[in-house]
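Translate structure to sequence.
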């Protein structure tokens, strides 16, 4: 084509579809067939068409922005979720602003600011430590919770946390472990409590002892995992295996006990939760519970876009299956070797 400014009619002609289909593909790509979406996007690339997002947003009285609120920007767990969000929001012509709920003294005040500032058409919240009352603001934009949740009435996308804990305990039990401990996240956190309940229920169902002195509190971080490792080293009566409520804590625990000369899994077995990127590169590789983090991001973005389109503050919640990943950090207990 010549170098005149491409129009939506040019894209429609090259793709062999109507201008309405082009518009729908660019604004809501999830609602059109894959073949149509690919044809339109190829035509956009061929013609050099550029959407005037500002004009489009003005017509629709939108900002064209979604705010994503995380509890810790440095946590590598969120990387794939953000990639999943971007894979849906970017083709739909939405920008993504990312902020840390814990960067100031009052996380709930920061949330209220974002809900009332008019900066975004919707929010995706990945911090379940905030109270539902912080969302009770008239005229606020739609909010979707991902991974963590606030009560049962707000739309959310999360995984089967209790089942994940049960898979971890069940694997250790099948290896022959009867002395199984747990490193939790911060108490009061919904993920912590749900995984702890799954751990306790699994032990009960298997007829295994629950020892409260083998339940060590952490905060999902590597440092707290290392602290749990030091606590385990000082125990006179140790569990032979531990389920840790995050891979980061498992990494910290592994490093701490290995520096003390303890062999994993020969002396102690560990299972994490999340399947972050580093898990497969450890020595030994970390046995863990995989959260499909990209899928969480994709589904959270699709749900939010649907709510924005309909002007709704309510929507369905979705529970995504977890997957057990077996690597080398868990084996039969020492007395069974």
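Result:
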């Amino acid at each position: 084509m010549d170098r005149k400014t491409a129009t939506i009619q040019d894209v429609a002609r090259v793709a062999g579809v109507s201008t309405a289909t082009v518009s729908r593909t660019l604004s809501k790509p999830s609602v059109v067939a894959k073949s149509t979406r690919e044809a339109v996007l190829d035509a956009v690339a061929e013609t050099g068409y550029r959407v005037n997002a500002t004009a489009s947003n003005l017509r629709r009285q939108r900002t064209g922005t979604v705010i994503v609120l995380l509890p810790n920007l440095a946590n590598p767990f969120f990387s794939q979720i953000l990639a999943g969000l971007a894979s849906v929001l970017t083709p739909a012509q939405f920008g993504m602003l990312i902020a840390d709920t814990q960067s100031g003294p009052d996380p709930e005040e920061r949330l209220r600011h974002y809900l009332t500032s008019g900066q975004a058409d919707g929010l995706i919240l990945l911090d379940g430590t905030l109270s539902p009352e912080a969302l009770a603001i008239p005229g606020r934009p739609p909010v979707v919770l991902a991974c963590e949740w606030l009560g049962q009435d707000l739309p959310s996308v999360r995984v089967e946390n209790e089942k994940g804990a049960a898979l971890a305990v069940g694997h250790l039990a099948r290896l022959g472990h009867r002395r199984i401990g747990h490193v939790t996240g911060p108490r009061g956190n919904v993920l912590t409590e749900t995984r702890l309940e799954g751990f306790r229920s699994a032990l009960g169902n298997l007829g295994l002892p629950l020892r409260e002195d083998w339940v060590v509190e952490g905060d999902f971080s590597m440092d707290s995992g290392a602290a749990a490792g030091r606590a385990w080293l000082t125990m006179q009566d140790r569990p032979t295996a531990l389920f840790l409520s995050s891979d980061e804590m498992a990494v910290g625990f592994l490093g701490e006990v290995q520096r003390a000369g303890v062999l994993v899994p020969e002396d102690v077995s560990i299972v994490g939760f999340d399947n972050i990127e580093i898990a497969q590169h450890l020595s030994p590789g970390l046995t863990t519970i995989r959260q499909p983090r990209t899928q969480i991001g994709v589904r959270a973005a699709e749900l939010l876009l649907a709510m924005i389109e309909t002007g709704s503050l309510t929507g369905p919640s979705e529970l995504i299956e977890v997957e057990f990943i077996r690597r080398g950090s868990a084996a039969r207990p020492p007395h069974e070797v």
